[in-house]
Amino acid sequence: MTRTRPLVTDDYSEEMLVCIQNCQDCHRACLQTLTYCMKQGGRHARPEHLRLLMDCADICLTSAAFMIRASDLHPHTCAACAAVCQACADDCAEMSDDLRMKALADTCRHCAESCRAMAAGVGRGDGGDREQTLSGGPRDTRGPRRTGAVLSRRKTE
User: Measuring CA to CA, how many Å separate 95 from each of 37, 40, 90, 107?
Assistant: First the structure.
């Protein structure tokens, strides 16, 4: 059996790299906030809220994994991720008097926006995407394009 496409590629559009990072950031933030909410108790520990945080963390991880391995099905996971992240953002925004919840709402909202764009085909490279550049001319986004080295964040202590 021959594969026509590698399982993992290092050729991603800039939009996909941003979306992958947003999903990974949102996954981590939801898990960290889940622990915080359980300790806080009260409205933070409502079962529906905790479940939504877990759902958001899981779909973000799944969506990032689909994009990392260049799955042709990633627009579907990105669409689901956008919906779940938006629901999580809305739920967390109801507790925006808590700065941690406000920050998570912003992170989830940012991820939802990025995933909505990926679900709509931005940076997908499926042969039909064209975007406008700042100069007004079209930029061809068909197929993978090399974007240069990706710098990862280093954990600070």
Answer: 11, 12, 9, 14
Residue 81 included in any domain? yes
Residue 65 lies in a domain: yes
Q: Which two tokens stand for residue 33?
A: 């906030």
Quote the pTM value: 0.73
Q: Which residue's structure tokens are 């627009």? A: 75
**Joined tokens for residue 149:** 């080295």
The DSSP annotation for 99-130 comes to: HHHHHHHHHHHHHHHHHHHHHTTTT--SS--E
Number of domains observed in the structure of the chain: 1
For a pLDDT cut of 90, what percent of the chain falls above it?
68
